[in-house]
Design brief:
- The structure is a homodimer.
- By secondary structure, chain A is an alpha/beta fold.
- Chain A has 2 domains: 273 residues, 3-Layer(aba) Sandwich (Aldehyde Dehydrogenase, Chain A, domain 1), CATH 3.40.605.10; 193 residues, Aldehyde Dehydrogenase, Chain A, domain 2.
- Chain A has 19 helices and 20 strands.
- In chain A, the strands form 5 sheets. Chain A has a 7-stranded mixed β-sheet with strand order 15-16-17-12-10-18-19, sandwiched between helices. Chain A has a 5-stranded parallel β-sheet with strand order 7-6-5-8-9, sandwiched between helices. Chain A has a 3-stranded antiparallel β-sheet with strand order 3-4-20, with no helix packed on it.
- In chain A, helix 1 crosses helix 5.
- Chain A is globular.
Chain lengths: 554, 554
């Protein structure tokens, strides 16, 4: 049985899910991945990998091994070193592997890729620990985001690619009546992959943000080079290793997908970008480098970016003030604001808002929100789990610097004790009030646990400012609380015009930070927060070219 | 009955044709368009439009009227003047119309657009004369290319847009089991149009090359500004006027699609390009301006180009030398090489080729090809009809300049008499021999009736050179004559790798110049000849953004 036959049902179900947009999660459970033994086995595997050289990759002859990952929970190095290769060697191997991979049918490619996700699943617990101790995410988020949710997004990319690559017939007989005779041609169409694909990872979501581009490029026939963030390698290294093993088992060149580890001191992303054979670039990270990458498009490279955004929340009215504040407080606190979807700017009218319990003044609303944030931060059980740890010192420093220059701090940022990891780098949210007129204070992304409450004249001004900021600086998410259905529709329409997705009146355990595969197009690709979306048709179609051939039929 | 209901069958059939790629022509005939009266009525309509101000557009308050079209057949001005508007006024009106158009459902938009094609059909004969006397095409080509074939390509863009815009549900209930309860959200997705679309026309195919971008932008909800080539306005002016009338009849702002005529002396394309509200740019024309336009992508504009290419023909072997030469001679001669798909570089091995009648030397092959080209040029009936007229003096001058600097002319270019239009600007093909080593002589597009025969060592070298040139300079078409099936496959694969479509062994009345709607992706978009294709999914998907909204369900 071919791998396609083995996984056909999964692939076709995922294609259907893509079309119907109604699935919440797709990747089927299995006992090995989720069984009783799995948690302990995963922890053990992670622990034994520490202070060793990562030897699972099938890439030959590294020039040396190096690694610089530091656990945000332990604040000590993981001691894992990865094989390092010269960028020219990596590109040359990729080119060689390309010749093989582009000839493989889409069915075979899909089978191999889904098989690799199957193998990845067996290591979800190990990947979770690896993610926790590189990104600073809580264990729960590490498991979900780097495990099943990442696999979902990878599968979604495979499914979208599969659908697009098979949407036109491979060939047809074209028959044109000319009066007394017909012209008959056999026409064929091939989706031709563009070339070497470079996927540049980030330090906070090393698999979730990497696998969509990786699998989208692979399903469309392109070889992939993954350049992880040097501080968050292990989670994606495991994924690449599993894929390489599947490739090798099927007598394919494992260099079809390579890991290219660099260091903070000697970054190599630009070397790859400059290489003429590198045609596709996926990137998650800061806007400065992202904008530079986008400019490479004039050299004929396709660039897919997810950059910084300034995510707004507009508070107009609510049926449940407490539920609203609890929900928003959680969104602000989750992984200490280190999600690209975390809200930053909260627009509250100076005149207060209508609630089910009657009118609440501005101060009452702010007080309720601050109190809810404080409640999570100070909750001895909930706080450490929700806030998790800061990935790096730069974020900790940013919080301090912003606090120092703040005009009005409503809630100071503190470290909290994580009893499991007493050395964890933690910070509770800093909440500040800024005036609507002081745009410089809130127009930029302040990555980390920082929330700004912006006092506006009214909701009209709130929406106006949210639009103004996001149309210039972009946004990946936007929350609106409003009980007036007509006004909601109007705001949805106005934000859609600048390509910002809105979540309305979220309460309970669903948050505007969460973007799900098979239903949410993560990042619209239409505003300054990024030029691409997980996983719309463009996300795969830009990776290959339809080329037709024509042959006469006798 | 809504226009969607009226045209539903046509739209859905076109969607199906797009998927199946097996239709040769789509737009249904009707008696009014093709009836006995139609030819005379069309000629009359064209004749009365000469020396008048074009008054059919519904755009108000022009600042003046001007026009500079010159018939390549009469070599006198047509005397038609078009309303001229300030670019800022055009953009402001487009923005105003956008607010209306983006709210119209895709069904209504599709209905209106197909209705406009229905009206255009009634004027095919008039458009044919307008095309002939602006582009220099023969009447037959003018009719086909600017009439039914253009309408086909427009309909294809509408169909592809319709399919993409309706491929995801407008909304769904997303239900996630959480154990003891479910999270239930209503999720909606809207395809949001990107903004004002600028379509820059060319002088040789004023409707065929304009309507795909125009209709692709319109179906996806974007307002359109058409900036025609100042020397070829009338054909597209008629199309725009018909669309504006349909819009007005349905109480919609006719400025949803505007014609913005400029002059050779005061070009305004760049003014539009620089305007921040212009988000989409379609362009057919020279590579210098096309490359500049593509660079505007770093400002967040989507740019769709069709530029110059160097189209190769590789001659390896043939079953029918005469049929091959007749076919190629026709391709070279058709509209005097002024098609973007016309072949230019003919690679012939110095060792000769195998044919059904045995081995033919290089000289015999060249002689046969030159003789076939000469045969068409000197044929008193066929010559003028096939060669038609040169659109402008620059092309005539180019032929002379290239001939003057040629090392070895195999067939000189001459004017020929067109008995119907004795003043026609005509030129027969210039055929030259160049050595394979003299790349400078053949690496650029020599637009017009110019064919180069390049003597190579063997087919391997021919393919190598064809690849080398097209990978740098691009190609829109490529012809290969080869009786070895395995070698054909290999060449197809090698050319596909650089995104060049190949037509094999064409003989009889089908030519590599011809690209048909619903089956040929015209320009692959993968090489230097252009970054977009008529009409693959990217062609419409890059014109809008999917934006999702989420609402809790109680």
């Amino acid at each position: 049985m071919s791998l396609f036959e083995k996984h056909q049902e999964t692939i076709l179900r995922a294609v259907k899910a893509n079309k119907e947009r109604g699935f919440y999660a797709h990747y089927p459970e299995n006992p090995k991945a989720y069984g009783e033994e799995a948690p302990a086995a995963g922890l053990h595997a992670f622990q034994v990998s520490m202070n060793t050289d990562f030897s699972e990759l099938l890439q030959q002859q590294p020039i040396r091994f190096e690694g610089e990952e530091v656990s945000p929970y332990l604040q000590t190095g993981l001691g894992i070193r990865y094989p390092v290769f010269a960028d020219k060697v990596v590109v040359a191997r990729s080119k060689e592997a390309f010749a093989e991979w582009r000839k493989i049918s889409v069915q075979e490619r899909a089978g191999i890729l889904v098989e690799s996700l199957d193998r990845m699943r067996n290591r979800f617990f190990e990947i979770a620990h690896a993610t926790q101790h590189t990104t600073g995410q809580s264990f729960m988020m590490s498991f979900q985001a780097s495990g099943p949710h990442a696999a979902d997004r990878a599968l979604e990319a495979v499914a979208m690619g599969f659908e697009e690559l098979t949407r036109f017939p491979a060939e047809t007989i074209w028959d044109k009546p000319m009066g007394k005779f017909n012209i008959t041609l056999r026409k064929t169409w091939k989706p031709v992959p563009k070339g070497i694909s470079l996927v540049i990872g980030c330090s906070t979501f090393p698999t979730w943000n990497t696998v969509p581009g990786m699998y989208a490029s692979l399903i469309t026939g392109n070889p992939v080079i993954i350049k992880p963030h040097p501080k968050a390698v292990l989670p994606i290294a495991i994924v690449v290793a599993e894929l390489q093993k599947v490739l090798a088992e099927h007598h394919l060149n494992p260099n079809i997908c390579q890991l290219a580890v660099d260091s903070t001191k000697f970054p190599i992303a630009k070397e790859f970008v400059h290489h003429p054979d590198v045609k596709l670039i996926d990137y998650t990270g800061n806007s400065v480098f992202g904008n530079w990458l986008e400019a490479q498009q004039i050299l004929g490279k396709e660039v897919f970016t997810e950059k910084a955004g300034v995510n707004p929340v507009v508070i107009d009215s609510t049926n449940d003030l407490k539920a609203m504040c609890d929900n928003l407080a959680f969104s602000v606190s989750l992984y200490a604001g280190q999600m690209c979807t975390a809200p930053q700017n909260f627009f509250v009218p100076a005149t207060g808002i209508q609630t089910a319990e009657g009118h609440k003044t501005y101060d009452e609303v702010v007080e309720a929100l601050v109190s809810a944030i404080k409640g999570i931060a100070e909750h001895p059980k909930m706080g450490p789990g929700v806030l998790a740890a800061l990935q790096n010192d730069a974020t900790a420093d940013r919080v301090k610097a912003v606090a120092a220059s703040a005009k009005k701090v409503l809630l100071g940022s503190n470290s909290i004790l994580n009893e499991e990891f007493t050395e964890a780098r933690t910070a509770t949210p800093l909440v500040m009030e800024v005036d609507a007129a002081d745009k410089a204070a809130y127009e930029k992304e302040l990555f980390g646990p920082i929330a700004l409450i912006i006092k506006t004249a009214d909701t009209k001004m709130s929406v106006q400012l949210a639009k103004e900021l996001t149309s210039v600086h972009g946004a990946i998410s936007c929350g609106v609380y409003c009980t007036d259905t007509a006004l909601c529709e109007q705001i949805a329409d106005e934000m859609a015009e600048i390509f910002v997705p809105v979540s309305f009146n979220l309460t309970g355990p669903i948050y505007l930070n969460q973007h799900a595969a098979f239903s949410d197009f993560h990042v619209t690709g239409g505003n300054a927060a990024g030029n691409a979306s997980f996983t719309d048709p463009n996300y795969v179609n830009r990776r290959f070219v339809w080329v037709g051939q024509r042959y006469p039929v006798q």
